[in-house]
Amino acid sequence: MAAKPTRSTKQAGQDWLLSCTTQPTDVCRQWDDEELAPFRTGAHWRAAEAPLLQSMHAMKRMGWKCLGPVLADAEANLAWWLLPPTVGDELDDIRPLTVHPAGWVLRCPPVLHAVGVRMWLERPDGSGRLTDPVLLGAAFSPGGARLSMEASR
């Protein structure tokens, strides 16, 4: 099980997320007002959308060492996985996943806390680590094979 993030690791994750926008001051104002802030995909990461429950099962199968940031919206029953900006067609045949194109906007809460029902299931940690699309595809594939211990290292 992953260690509980400390305030400093959460802050590092928030600083990283803010580095992914051209308007960090505006984003901070929105967060101060308890609003979600828009982040355009493409330059820093892309987003794969999936049903929330299937995402939670996939997270368990993958193990915490393989996870990049995962955002969830409990009301919409959706999760978004942050993937490398260079993701290609690796996930095209994985039915529950929709990879959004560069330029798509994902509305995010701060890393430090939820806004409404939108929260980070796996917070950005400040390292820039993103989910490997091949591992994500394996976790969502029919049968949802559990990844080997070697793959999760």
List keywords for this structure.
two-stranded antiparallel sheet; 26% helix; 153 residues; 4 helices; single chain; globular; five-stranded antiparallel sheet; alpha+beta; 7 strands
Would you give an account of this structure?
- It is a single chain.
- With 153 residues, the chain is an alpha+beta fold.
- The chain has helices at 7-18, 24-32, 52-62, 133-140; strands at residues 37-40, 46-51, 70-73, 78-83, 98-99, 105-108, 118-122.
- The strands form 2 sheets. The chain has a 5-stranded antiparallel sheet. Strands 1-6 form a two-stranded antiparallel sheet.
- Strand 3 (70-73) and strand 4 (78-83) form a beta hairpin.
- Helix 3 crosses helix 4.
- The two termini are 13 Å apart.
Strand order in space, largest sheet? 5-2-4-3-7
Shape: globular
- Got a strand count? 7
Low-confidence stretches: 147-153
Tally of helical runs: 4
> Which structural class should the secondary elements be placed in?
alpha+beta
What's the alpha carbon Rg, rounded to whole Å? 15 Å
**Topology as H/E string?**
HHEEHEEEEEH
Cα(first) to Cα(last) distance is 13 Å
- Give a quick account of the main beta sheet: strands, pairing sense, barrel closure: 5 strands, antiparallel
Strand content: 15-25%
Mean pLDDT, to the nearest integer, reads 89
**Quaternary structure type:** single chain
Helical coverage, percent range: 25-40%
